[in-house]
Write a structure and sequence with these properties.
By secondary structure, the chain is of the alpha+beta class. It is built from 22 helices and 25 strands. The strands form 5 sheets. The protein has a 10-stranded mixed beta sheet with strand order 2-3-22-20-24-25-14-15-17-16. A hairpin with a 3-residue loop joins strand 10 and strand 11. The longest helix is centred in the middle third of the chain and has 33 residues. The chain is globular, with a radius of gyration of 30 Å. The N and C termini lie far apart (about 80 Å).
């Protein structure tokens, strides 16, 4: 029965996880119906334009022109063709964001294509009179990728959703405008959305928004954020989409930082006060932000685009028809909700007040079970909790120990072959959990302690099962008090299990083993089904994430603990029942032996026969051709060097690279003229290295291979630079204003360091004010060992041909002020970069560019 239960459960979850709708072709589909085949035309065309980094012609000219033409073509001859407005916005601004280590983000003339489909009305003069729905995706790409999934596929979805609405024979929506924001600066950390929501006149009319993102290539898009607060948003999704998939637990994980990412949703929420939904693809994250994220990779899952397009179209219609849509943004109708889907068939939305009632019911049922029905003694309850703790620790500890061993002998050996997780982590966790479940409570013993009696099987199982219920009840109470989105699951586990078992115990006076087993399985079935869905998502996300989570984070440990938790969840209520009824004939001991043998063979195979990476699931590497120059206060360069700065962003770092013979032959400097770049926190300014993002605490031990300076064309090589000019000095009040003027690159970074702003000392160099954001400098990361703070300013310029960046900073004191800056030419690869990377195996994917870095004093 146990085997059948788990097999049916896993088959159901797998089938739901793989299901995608049939693709609707262009010729057989009316323009009012979404068609994946039509969407593929846009995907092929836009990815064919190449890499689209902010500042490139492909991003600032070619792609916007294509989107405008596609919108006009989609509307041509439609009933509402005359209700379409198209605007090209090029905003500039700055803001602070807490993403990664936190930094200040400045932008200039980035490109947004804004399309407004107006509902029929008497006057078109006042945008605020008619509420609107905002749909957002981005067409710019990360470095080195054509970004088919992140986020061209969503751009195509938006164009085809627009076609469906503009061709409607009746009013497209219920007296509602739809704004399509094709955002040209998301990969430069959410600049385009900030420019729209803080500066565009359409933004004031937006009542709800739909953000479309990706962290993987295809599959089922997932709803992982709603609101904030407005319960009608989740209800509109649940009542209208044909293929629901999401959970408020994902929202907890995302907003608490457990999932290390950010989307335009947070910009719309934090800077515009908007509410809405955040949808993203997460399957096949191995291709995310690599050159493999192309149309061919996306085509591996036909039906993904069809599913997403149909869902988005119905969300728009559902939001526009909701009565709450026309209320003010500050009105919270219904309070907080939790939501989850059941096998992708139905989305359940529950108001939090019912979670509170359910938690009270759990406490009541637990009281009835422990005190009124079973009358457990104090010793039995102590044993119950200690036995449960032993099983929980065992389930986590066994795979953790294996992961620590793998960190030294075969790190990430499962990365390209996730099935290896079963023998490496599932097997030892399951074997040790079964062993821990064999503990039995002593019932009586004689004075000489030579004769010991144990509780009978039925009582022993009840005691062990009760420990699990106490655990789940505690979590349910705590999550309810904290109003977590995950509280629904933590309440369902004890309430379903207790209801089934208490009901069976009351109905059946003398339990048969089969009746007892049935009550345990039935009580576990629904919460375990929902848990399995969440675990499928977790493995989809966290296994590929191990390839880009930094050199200090062991993916082995993360996936091992996730696996241990999975085993615990699958066995926490059923393992005692299984063990106590089978221990007499030795079945459990034999099973443990077989499982441990599988684990041993798995570890042996992983350490001897497996490479962590494959061509479809490669290792990631950054290759920057760097020129560094150090200038004295009189403007003379007192030091300079150049080289290839190599970084990997997973736990194996660059160790696999140095063992490659072909690479060493092509670049002999890897054997001799190479330096491991450590960060001198005492004297450096942000490590004195041209970091593109503030990730110095995530990525360590990069290699610096000495080569000649990058030979750029005259315009690029001569144009980058910056000046520091003292504009105003008020030494009596200890303030100096320094004006910075930078030119050349479309992507530039400024680095500062200084004492904390609340420091009462008289140190020079404290940052007091600047012309960015709200005028108050905000630091990046934690304090350095000497107490100083780092400041990281990211700048990207879009459509401007000759980008310049001007700002001022006020410092304290009268001593020497130092700063550093880097110009990043993200679309340039030098011969040195090409020579090194052309010898890389196909299981390494890289991004290469040129970085010119300077440190100056004034």
């Amino acid at each position: 029965m146990y085997a059948a239960f788990y097999v049916v459960l896993c088959v159901a979850v797998y089938a739901q996880h793989q299901y995608l709708p049939e693709v609707k072709t262009d010729g057989d589909t009316e323009p009012t119906v979404f068609s994946e085949e039509r969407a593929w035309i846009h995907i092929e065309e836009i990815t064919g334009l190449g890499v689209r980094t902010v500042g490139s012609d492909a991003n600032e000219k070619l792609t916007p022109a294509y989107i405008v033409d596609a919108i006009r073509d989609a509307a041509k001859g439609a009933p509402f063709e005359d209700r379409v407005d198209i605007d090209i916005q090029r905003p500039s601004g700055s803001f602070h964001i807490d993403f990664i280590s936190g930094f200040t983000n400045a932008y200039q003339d980035v490109t947004n294509v804004v399309v407004r489909l107006r509902s029929p009305r008497e006057s078109d003069d006042d945008y605020d009179d008619i509420p609107s729905i905002l749909i957002n995706s981005h067409f710019d790409s990360a470095l080195g990728t054509v970004a088919a999934s992140d986020d061209v596929v969503q751009v195509a979805v938006m164009i085809e959703v627009f076609r469906s609405l503009v061709w409607s024979e009746t009013r497209p929506l219920h007296d509602c405008d739809v704004i399509f924001l094709f955002n040209g600066a998301e990969e430069t950390i959410l600049q385009g959305s900030h420019g729209f929501v803080t500066q565009h006149p359409y933004a004031s009319s937006v009542r709800a928004m739909i953000n479309l993102e990706a962290a993987g290539s295809g599959g089922r898009e997932v709803l992982f954020q709603t609101g904030p607060g407005e319960s009608w948003i989740a209800l509109a999704y649940a009542q209208n989409v044909p293929y629901p998939h999401g959970s408020s637990l994902y929202q907890d994980a995302f907003q608490t930082g457990l999932i290390p990412s950010d989307t335009d949703f947070s910009i719309f929420r934090d800077f515009g006060g908007l509410v809405g939904v955040d949808l993203a693809f997460v399957e096949d994250g191995w291709a995310y932000h690599t050159h493999q994220d192309d149309a061919a990779r996306l085509r591996l899952r036909p039906g993904s685009v069809q599913r997403c397009g149909e869902n988005v179209l119905q969300i728009v219609r559902g939001l526009s028809s909701a009565p709450e849509f026309r209320t003010t943004l500050s009105t919270d109708t219904g309070g907080k909700v939790v939501f989850f889907d059941i096998l992708g068939v139905r989305m359940v939305v529950v108001r939090f007040v019912w979670i509170r009632f359910a938690t009270i019911l759990v406490l009541l049922l637990l009281y009835v079970w422990i005190v009124r029905l079973k009358r457990f003694t104090k010793d039995e309850m102590v044993f119950s909790l200690s036995n449960f703790g032993k099983r929980l620790v065992s389930a986590l500890a066994a795979p953790f120990v294996v992961s620590v061993v793998l960190c030294f002998v075969a790190p990430l050996c499962w990365y390209a072959r996730p099935a290896l997780v079963i023998p490496l982590f599932v097997a030892p966790s399951l074997a040790v959990t079964l062993r821990a479940s064999e503990g039995r409570m002593v019932s009586t013993e004689d004075e000489s302690k030579k004769r010991v009696r144990y509780c009978d099987d039925a009582r022993s199982e009840e005691i062990a099962w009760t420990g699990a219920m106490c655990f789940w009840t505690t979590l349910a109470v705590l999550s309810t008090l904290a109003e977590l989105g995950s509280s629904y699951l933590l309440v369902l586990w004890p309430i379903c299990s207790l209801l089934a078992r208490v009901s069976a115990d009351v109905a059946i006076t003398r339990w048969a083993r089969r009746a007892r087993a049935v009550s345990v399985v039935l009580g576990t079935a629904f919460p375990l089904l929902l848990t399995s869905q969440l675990l499928a998502f977790a493995y989809d996300f966290f296994v590929p994430l191990a390839g880009r989570s930094g050199t200090d984070v062991s993916g082995d440990v993360i996936v091992a603990l996730l696996t241990g938790l999975s085993v615990f969840l699958f066995t926490n209520t059923t393992a005692p029942l299984f063990v106590y009824y089978l221990h007499g004939n030795g079945v459990t001991r034999k099973l443990q032996t077989y499982i441990l043998a599988i684990a041993g063979l798995g570890v042996l195979y992983a350490t001897c026969c497996v490479s962590p990476y494959t061509s479809m699931r490669p290792k990631r590497m950054y290759v920057q051709h760097v020129r560094r120059r150090f200038f004295d206060i009189d403007g003379t360069a007192y030091a300079q060097d150049s080289g290839l700065w190599l970084n990997a962003i997973d736990f194996t770092a660059l160790r696999p690279l140095r063992r490659l013979r072909g690479v060493n032959a092509a670049m002999p400097q890897l054997e001799n003229d190479v330096e491991v770049m450590s960060c001198d926190q005492d004297t450096s300014i942000y490590c004195d290295l041209p970091w593109y993002l503030p990730i110095k605490d995530m990525v360590r031990n990069g290699l610096y291979v000495k080569v000649d300076p990058p030979a750029l064309d005259a315009a690029k090589g001569a144009s980058f630079g910056y000046t520091m000019v003292e504009e105003d000095a008020d030494l009596d009040n200890g303030r100096r204003k320094i004006r910075f003027h930078a030119t050349g690159a479309h992507h530039m970074i400024f680095y500062f360091k200084g004492p904390p702003p609340d420091d009462s000392g008289d140190e020079d160099g404290r940052l007091l004010a600047w012309s960015l954001t709200d005028g108050t400098p905000k630091h990046s990361g934690t304090a350095r060992p000497d107490g100083d703070l780092d400041y990281f300013v990211f700048f990207a310029s879009g459509a401007k041909e000759d980008p310049t960046f001007d700002f001022w900073v006020e410092f304290s004191g009268g001593g020497t002020i130092e700063a550093a800056a880097a110009g990043h030419y993200v679309d340039t690869r030098t011969p040195e970069v090409i020579r090194l990377t052309s010898n890389l195996p196909d299981w390494i994917t890289y991004v290469g560019w040129v970085s010119l870095w300077e440190r100056k004093r004034v």
